[in-house]
Amino acid sequence: MLSAEASFVGVIVEGGDASGAGQMSPVKTLWEPPACYFAPKWTAEEFKKWWTGHVLPMAEKTEAPGFTSDLRQDHKKLYGPEGKYEDHNVARADEGTWWGVHTNPNARGTEDAMACYSDESYLWVEHSDPPPSVSGVPDAQVLAELAYEHVHIPELSFEVNPAADAQKVNLATWVWLPASELEPVSVTARLDGYANLSSTVTARPVSVSLDAGTADATVHAGSGGCAVSSAGVIGAEWTSARKGETPPCGVTYHRATHGGDGYELSATVTWEVSWEGSDGSGGDLPSGEFGSSLPVQVQEVQTIVR
After folding, report:
1. Please, which domain of life does this record's source organism belong to (predicted)?
2. Where does a domain end: 107, 137, 167?
3. Helix or strand or coil: residue 63?
4. What pLDDT does residue 302 have?
5. pTM, to two decimals
6. Within 10 Å of residue 191's Cβ, how many Cβ atoms?
7. 186 vs 18, 151, 273, 275, CA distance in Å?
8. How far apart are the C-alpha atoms of 281 and 275, rounded to whole Å?
9. Among the three residues 111, 137, 163, which one is the final residue of a domain in this structure?
10. Domain count, the chain
11. Which own/partner contact pairs does 101-106 have at CB distance under 8 Å and 24+ positions apart?
């Protein structure tokens, strides 16, 4: 595999601020985004520099003389004075770009990514032309799959009552996430320099599963977890008017922590993911999970004997 600096990044991903956030994990699937794709990579000048400053000198150092000789002859036929792409199309630099293989950064070093370069090729594409119909060029769905990896979920902050350091044995803990924590997240991917095709991926929260951090507890939730309500919230905020009720989303601990390390109460939100292409196409991608946890201390209920 040969590499060199290039000004075109292949696929540009916009949206999905990653600051203080986490990446979703696909739910119950072995699906993975593409390991590589074929997209804009070099300007004409960069392509020339890559050949003359990297590929040919590297071949001289590492390959057999016969291979190097053939490589130079092939290069001259394509890019020499009489070649189809004279001087690597430097004189036509404003008209198009050179396309090549890009590796998905998250797949770099894998066998699938290395296999992408087994038959590496390059192609000149005019700016005025649509993306070429060759293997590896992203369509709307592939752009969506590449965007999927950039859907970062904001760090979740779920509320509990009683407070995390004042849980009580056999007293229900109410858990809820306000609508502000559950806004949909969208990311758009497009080909660098060829913006006539793009795809937008949107993740929407649908439910949360609770883990009390101990088997000595009862989890209060529906069969599919605590669902997002029509108001966009999960669970319900405790108020004194609801004293004695069973929470729609919560936990009841049955054993005290006695000042030890406590339990780790975790809330994992499931996000359904869909995509829409600029060409009118669209569909679904694997649902994703992302969660956070909260250390809790559980106390015995103190009673007064008269």
Report:
1. Bacteria
2. 137
3. coil
4. 62
5. 0.77
6. 22
7. 12, 7, 9, 9
8. 8
9. 137
10. 2
11. 101/36, 101/37, 101/38, 101/41, 101/136, 102/9, 102/10, 102/11, 102/36, 102/37, 102/38, 102/39, 102/41, 103/35, 103/36, 104/33, 104/34, 104/35, 104/36, 104/37, 104/146, 104/149, 106/33, 106/149
